[in-house]
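Reviewer 2 asked us to include a model.

Predict the structure of this chain.
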Amino acid sequence: MSEYPPGAPARLPERPQVLRSSRVVLPDGERPAAVHLADGRIAAITEPTEVPADVQVTDLGDLALLPGVVDSHVHVNEPGRTEWEGFATATRAAAAGGVTTIIDMPLNAIPPTTSLAALAIKRAVAEGQIAVDVGFWGGIIGADTRSLADLAALHDAGVFGFKAFLAPSGVEEFPHVSMEVLAAAARHTARMGALTVVHAESPAVLAAAPPVAGRAFASWLASRPAAAETQAVAGLAALSAATGARLHVLHLSAVEALDEILAARAEGLALTAETCPHYLTFTAEEVPEGATVFKCAPPIRGRSNLDRLWDAMPAGLLTGIVSDHSPSTPEVKHIDSGDFAAAWGGIASVQIGLPAVWTQARARGHTLAEVVAWMCAGPADLAGLRGKGRLAVGADADLVVFDPDASFLVEPSMLRHRHPLTPYAGRSLDGVVRATYLRGVRADGDRPPRGRLLAR
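Predicted model (structure tokens):
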């Protein structure tokens, strides 16, 4: 397995008492500080010199100390499609990349997380093999409202909200819903105060688009036009207005859809959105012919779209940046044929999202504090994880020792998820994760799994 570049400090302790750095990224910005740990939590944050004489201090120098990344959009796929990905491999990859909390999507596992029985199966399978903390989304499926009876039970059992697709999901056991069924579900979730997260592409727009053909990425892009996102997001804004439901747009790609988010915000509606590292890194113009590792839905769009997404980040129109880690086998990804019509649409990136975003952010003049807001605090706040995503007294001691000035080449052999397929392969990224701590204990992916199952 390839290692990240040399230059790490002296061996970091397994269970530090105090971590001191000239670059501690706190909720109010970056500054020198000492972070005191006790019983798995942050006990105090002081000036660097305010440390008792009898306490062991680990001095990180100019390495940055960040809160653990919270990734609220991960497809683990176990059980049922464990050959694609599983809890052990997904969470080891997460830990290696500075991600200390993930929330698992209700598909592509079999059974999907749409009932109490299915949630119990997920939790039983995950128990004992997770390297980071794991929570679960529930699902909204089907052409009628029979499944809605399960929503309250799942909510009471601690799922973090409910996911629905407005367009086909790609797996038969998780059918998409009509806007009418979603409206019925939204009335339920509004009464519960639960969050509903939505894959927002209009099936009518997709049906009218040209079909996908062959190895050309342009064909895939044309089949998923920006109008599919804008029309769907407009429908969600109307639904939020009608029901009062909290609705969240998953993996927003088309920057035009942000106009609908802005209008909804102006009306005081509870409609939010996220985006992903791949939409902020890659452009349609650079995708080689047959490179199905780049296929996802919605698709990667053009250079101007990427630039405008980055322009929107400081404005706070997007609540966060999450991976939408959705790996599969080389066969399902159709790596050999490069057939965009047949290939699974999903990008594997849970391990390298932090450096991917930092690489692009620093080139545009953004700070580590902004990246932490987008990748740690934002997703934690969306999911209601008050003890995650920030360095604050009382929060879980989920920490990342990060070298923002080091670079590395992404090699498939360094990836910990089950199949080392990623569009980032061969790309040089800035920012190296030197250590990950979960509740104050090292959890870099090669250590015994110490993750916990989370409930809302």
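The first helix runs from residue 87 to 96. The CA atoms of residues 186 and 416 lie 37 Å apart. We have added this to the supplementary material.
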